[in-house]
Amino acid sequence: MASIKQRFQSLKSHINTELRSILAAYPEETEQVANEIDSLASYITDSSAITQSVLAARVAENGLDVNTHAESAATTADNFSDGCQANGERVTQDESVLLNHNIVSATSIHSDNARSGHRSDENRQNLQRTKMSSKRRSREAASERKERQAQSSDKATTSKLSRQRESVTRAQPSTASASSGKLKKKRGTNRFGSSSNKHQKRSMAVDVGKFNPKDISAFFQQTALIPKDFHQPEDIYGTFSERCSTDDSATILLLTRLFFGTGSPNSFDQLSKICTTLRQNQDLPTPQATNSLRQVVQALDSLNVQFSVASVLQRYFLVSLKTHRMKLEEEHQHSPSVRTRKVSKQLATISENGQSQTVSILDRADTQALRKMMEEAYPDLQLTRRTRGGPVNEYQRKLAALKERIRCGRNWKILQEKFGPSILLLIPSRDEYTISDSDVEKLSLPVLETLIEVLSEYRGAFLEAVCSKVSQIVAAIEDRRNLDKRYKFENITGATLKKERPDSSRFIEYCELDRDDHPKDPAESDDGPQGLTRVSI
Which spans does this entry mark as compositional bias, Basic and acidic residues (predicted)? Predict the structure, then answer.
């Protein structure tokens, strides 16, 4: 049979093992485990007091030393408290002291009772008072512990709230900017913001973080021609930076160049050369080994002009292609068979490399419009479907090219609908503004709307008046009438046109027919004679 010491040692080992097991099983429930340990400590305290009372009574009856046995019991309680702390439990020093105090108190009471010869009923009364006192002190210790935990929690909450306030404070500028952007988009009366003349002019402070003066000066070498009383590139850049939906500095710089390039003196110089070239219907020069240096330079000048002509004409043809697509799509949308825009069950058979395939003949309206355009544009190409993983055939290549051209015509059509067809003549190609057609065609709709809004607000009156005049020129050239008559800007050298103040009323006068019709001297042109030298073949 095991001795008493062995049994208590076994009990302590069991408690120690069980505590370690609980800690390992509930690593995230530290607070609840600590509370349970507190409860266990209180239970041990109460049990220890009861045990000590009974032990003291028995020892007194047997005439033995009570203190010796009390010390052994106190040692056992201390070992338990130490075991709890070694396992990482939240057994506070106050609880350990309280436990020892209870044991010593019980020992003292029962020692006195034994020496004074009190009976067991008195011992039970004293024991009851001791238990009540022990419980009261345990509650007080638990209350103090909860207060400390509450204070620690309050500090953590205060720190968290402080961090949140700092985060909100840092986020306020970007939030205000986003809200401002939403208000800007809603304030227009139409989708292009054409009612911008009703808006009060906004502050054009430049965002220093996005704006580099060296970048804009590199693209505006002709700023000396922009008078101080005209809009300055830095201010317009700041306006686009503030209003635009993108933060891309390259896009904002492109919008700034488009703002100054559209309807600029340079654009009228380009318009003069385009009109002359279209009127004369020049042939492309061909390089020959016998060409002189003068002929080579003149041929390059002529090609530059013809490149501008081809670029501008391509804009009109892209708009026309986009218009055809929209008309065909509208027709198919109104068709009862595709009102739901779902694939029909009606099928047709087509042939590809001699193999039959079954395809839908009543697809969505936009698909039908594309198919109709392919039939009219390439009547010799047979409709084919690309198989997954198979090579791209000629039909698919032509279809992809047609889709890309339709996409390129979208922005030109929007600009034309806003300012009139002649606006396409007044956007310079290449030139000092380094504006390429592909740059304009790649602009997203929100960015394009911002460009139109700013142009309408700051230069709307001039562009409307000029476009009205230039539209007559476009019609005259298209109809091939009055080809013997020149417009005033055609008889003015490019250098003279570029010296005019931007948005000057003179440009409106220059768009009228020249009654005197004295052609400019080719020698006065800064680009040399135009259309007068033919390169021999």
Answer: 112-124, 139-149, 513-523
Name the amino acid, one letter, at 132: M
Tens digit of pLDDT for each residue in 373-385? 999 999 988 887 7
pLDDT digits (tens, 9 = 90+) for 277-293: 877 776 777 777 777 89
Report the amino acid identity of residue 479.
Answer: D
Structure tokens at 412: 């030109």
Work out the end-to-end distance of the chain between its first and last CA atoms, rounded to an integer number of angstroms.
Answer: 127
For 438, the token pair is: 């592909």
Contact residues for 23 (Cβ-Cβ < 8 A; gap 6+): 33, 87, 88, 89
Exposed, middle or buried: residue 378 (CB in 10 Å: 0-12, 13-18, 19+)? middle
Beta strands in 184-320 (DSSP E): none
Backbone phi, psi, residue 150, to 5°:
-65, -40
Confidence of residue 490 (pLDDT cuts 50, 70, 90): confident
Give residue 493's Cα distance to chain centre. Answer: 48
Give the residue from 147, 48, 53, 18 showing the smallest Cα distance to 94. 147
In the chain, % helix, strand, coil (3-state, to 5) comes to 70, 5, 30
Length of the chain: 537
pTM to 2 decimal places: 0.53
Least confident of 54-63, 432-441, 486-495: 54-63
Question: Which range among 218-227, 419-428, 502-511 shows the weakest confidence by mean pLDDT?
Answer: 218-227
Q: Would you give the DSSP letter of residue 465?
A: H
DSSP code per residue over 283-320: PPP---TT--HHHHHHHHHHHHHHHHHHHHHHHHHHHH
Q: Are 522 and 532 in contact (CB under 8 A)?
A: yes
**Both tokens assigned to 30:** 């530290």
Could you state, in order of their start, the residue ranges of all structural domains in the chain? 4-158, 213-323+408-524
CB 261 within 8 A of CB 435: yes
Exposure string of 134-154, with b = 16+ CB inside 10 Å and e = fewer, is: beebbeebbeebeeeeeeeee
Question: Distance between CA atoms of 49 and 69, rounded to whole angstroms?
Answer: 13
